[in-house]
Amino acid sequence: MAPLRQHIEEIAPLTDAEFDQVQSFFTLKKVRKHQYLVNEGDEVKYEYLVLSGIYRVFYVDDQGKEYIVQFAKAGWWMSDYEAFFKQGKASMFIECLVAGEVFYATLDAREQLSKELHQMEHFFRVKLTNGYVAQQQRIKLLLSSTPQQRYEAFARLYPDLLQQVPKKLIAEYLGVSRETLSRLYAG
Amino acid sequence: MAPLRQHIEEIAPLTDAEFDQVQSFFTLKKVRKHQYLVNEGDEVKYEYLVLSGIYRVFYVDDQGKEYIVQFAKAGWWMSDYEAFFKQGKASMFIECLVAGEVFYATLDAREQLSKELHQMEHFFRVKLTNGYVAQQQRIKLLLSSTPQQRYEAFARLYPDLLQQVPKKLIAEYLGVSRETLSRLYAG
DNA sequence: ATTATCGTGTGATTTGGATCACACGGTTTT
DNA sequence: AAAACCGTGTGATCCAAATCACACGATAAT
User: Could you tell me which residue ranges the Cyclic nucleotide-binding domain spans (chains A, B) (predicted)?
Assistant: First the structure.
């Protein structure tokens, strides 16, 4: 649980007693490659904090095409957040691409911890603030940029993922076809 | 200031004393049509809570094309949030489309109120949660949908804006050309 | 060892939407 | 009242990226 504490304390310092309380809401889980943490149609009981490994949060349209909403690596949170927050059914899948470990916790954990510990509400607010800004940048990119620019932005932001993730999946994240993406760094 | 109180208390009840404290950070401002609240390059000192009127948050690319990141109407918050949170220069404009009034406050206000009043930190967390989910839906739409589907989703979500805002601007929000949008409901 | 499957590159063809161009009625301006 | 501008529709053309198709080496499966 030490990494959990460190992760939180980068934003919100906690006493030992407080961290014990936090800790009690989180469970550690090992995840194998190709394992799914969430499937479309599931109740989304948990959100996940990645300790290690790589994951993709994606959905599938009626024609079977896949679109990646989020990658996740160490230190990132992930879930089908729409379903998680509204406690509805998943419209997305979460798949493990590289084996690793995650912490998971319920919405109740988030809400109770936020209520009982002002520090934890602060922590979640700061995380959401960062996530909000990151998503807004993504929206701007999707609205106005060429495949070229999207690829460059991705390479700048996530050089590590560029190495570890098949290009096909990067294309699914960028909203570009596999072939077009391939031609970007060839030409 | 009554509408401000009501707006906050939908999420986080406050005592009179607490609200006084909150209130002291907000200022009311009348806004005329075509008035700009933020210009590209500005220091973004404020975020805005809309009381009335309609506003657009947009940016302009190197070719002069405009893209709308957000519309805002009564009860919505707006700013160039990336610049606001990071206290950097604006990359966007905020323009008033229909005259009205806004409250505004600084980042300091948000941070201090969050620190001093657990309730306010809760309020902001809930707002960010909703904003995060809404943005994620937008990302999904931009990634996978046709102009047709985007238009339909917009019409479903914001039937009022569809009436009050020129189609050209709706096209800029959807990431579609004016002409294509026009042909959607003709065909 | 041989056969699938996966990741990737690359050519040929198609196509949806952007762009360009113009029309026309409704406001606002002078 | 004439002139300029705005919002909107619509036809013609163009083009960037999707789609279709195939190749080929590398990894995984039988």
Answer: 29-113
> Domains of chain B by range and CATH?
3-115 (2.60.120.10)
Residue B1's pLDDT is 87
Label residue A1 by pLDDT band (50, 70, 90).
confident
Exposed / middle / buried, residue B17 (Cβ in 10 Å: 0-12, 13-18, 19+): exposed
The Cα of A73 is separated from the nearest Cα of chain B by a number of Å equal to 19
B185 pLDDT band, cuts 50/70/90, is confident
- Interchain CB contact of B118 with A (< 8 Å): yes
CA A177 to CA B17: how far, in whole Å? Answer: 57
Per-residue pLDDT tens over the stretch A63-77: 999 999 999 999 999
Spell out the residues 6+ positions from residue B178 whose beta carbon is closer than 8 angstroms to its own. Answer: B167, B168, B171
Distance in angstroms (rounded) separating the CA atoms of residues A39 and A56: 12
